[in-house]
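Hi support team,

I submitted a single chain yesterday and got back a structure, but I'm not sure I'm reading the token output correctly. Could someone confirm the output below corresponds to the sequence I sent? I've pasted both exactly as they appear in my results page.

Thanks,
R.
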Amino acid sequence: MKQPKISIIVPVYKAERFLHDCVDSILAQTFEDYELLLVDDGSPDSSGAICDAYAAKDTRVRVFHIANGGANKARALGVSQAAESQYITFVDSDDSLPPTALHDLYTLTDEEYDIIIGNYDCNPKQYADSVIDKLELVRQTYYYNIASSPYAKLFRRELFDDSTFDLPRDFVMGEDFIMNLRLAFACRKKIRIVPTVVYHYNDNAGGIMNTFHYTLDYLARSYHYKKAAIPEKHRKECMPYCIVNVLMMNHLVVGYYYKSHTKEKTPLHRQIVADIKEYGCRGYRWERFSLRFSNPVYSRLYLWVHDTIVALKKIKRRWH
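Hi R., thanks for writing in. Yes, this is the structure output for that exact sequence:
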């Protein structure tokens, strides 16, 4: 049996409103040498039945029904069950693909590249056509200049191993960031980046991106996993970027923390300060300023600004 060139993995959970658009956009691709793995993550709605209906109509579609374990576990299951394809890509069940997405990505594949990165339509960053190495990919990922999402990318299959998705079940926000870091460090070849839009992102108001609220405890866990993803031989050069990343997130949560806590510095802040002394920090003044939010006046001021921005975004979304 001829093996497909690309395995497309779609975790599915409570997606009945969007699933038809998602799967139809994949089945309508001009590039047809792929398999589609729909992983029903114990969805309580009709998503599982919708997946089965597609599999009955198209032999390229395979469905797996598992107990709910989160998107990370669903992606891991998909990779483990994928055929011996050359590349792996991911699509979220509430998003969709432009008709030429797979063609646009696959035509760029080359023995020189381990990852092909395309753009998505809501990305505020302007990608330039470029070739970079893995350490530059790590740096740009920490700075959010390259999306840390799993989609709009082709990953060479050999990059995946048992550690790629090794995270606790309750680590539900940022697990794809860790996945991308691990895959980046696994690269032995270059990474190709193109500005071509290969993904339609749906800003789902009920999605985790719009409903999850960070806490300092969760931020501390995230920082731990982001540090642990860096191999020892790359710690010196990559830790300054990791520190910038946690400081960029720090000022998003610290205001909420001081609603119910006193103004003492937390273990996370002490750890950041210690890491800055050991590795340095290539951050901006605003990121460093967030460490001052042990002062409740600063934290409340930022919290007010942040809440105002969030409210304005919600109003804009309703008008669209």
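A quick pointer for reading it: The first helix runs from residue 19 to 27. Let us know if anything else looks off.

Best,
Support desk
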